[in-house]
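Exercise 3.2. Students should predict the tertiary structure of the chain below and write it as structure tokens, then compare their answer with the key that follows.

Predict this chain's 3D structure.
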Amino acid sequence: MSFESPNGPVPQFTPSTVDLDSAVMEELFSWEGAVSLGWEVASRCSCYSADSKQPEWGHEPCKGLGVIYAPRVEIKGLFRSQDRWLSFRREGELERGEAQLTTPLDIRPGYIDRRVRDRIITLSAVGDAEEGRVFYPAAQAKPFIFAGAQRAWRVSLQSASEADQLVNYGV
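Answer key:
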């Protein structure tokens, strides 16, 4: 529908199709609060036996863990919360932790089962998590919905200190 004015026809208004909400979410991961993380995608090692549900101890590629990690990729993430505490055991003091992390839509931390889950490492100190702190997803990543559409992923993380004793994760 067009209208006539004394100066000629008035152009019809067409709304812009720019998705400002997506642009805002993408911009969040470049701001000061975004944290540099190392992301290593996990996959089950070929030495894992479906019958015994155990890896082959001493298997060199996975060091007997049954999990192989892809080379580290640097990503940006937003920690929403983070806790840390000591667990006192016969073996000594084990440092434990939990965190809530939001990652961009193209970064979905993986969780196959309790043994096979991606590894996320802090590349610099953030809050009370020191540089090199290792986190693992506690469950499958959930969609982060904003303004009626999925904009990112949110995931609960666990910091497992016993894993630090098995493998040197040097940053």
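Discussion points: The chain has one domain: 17-166. The radius of gyration is 23 Å.
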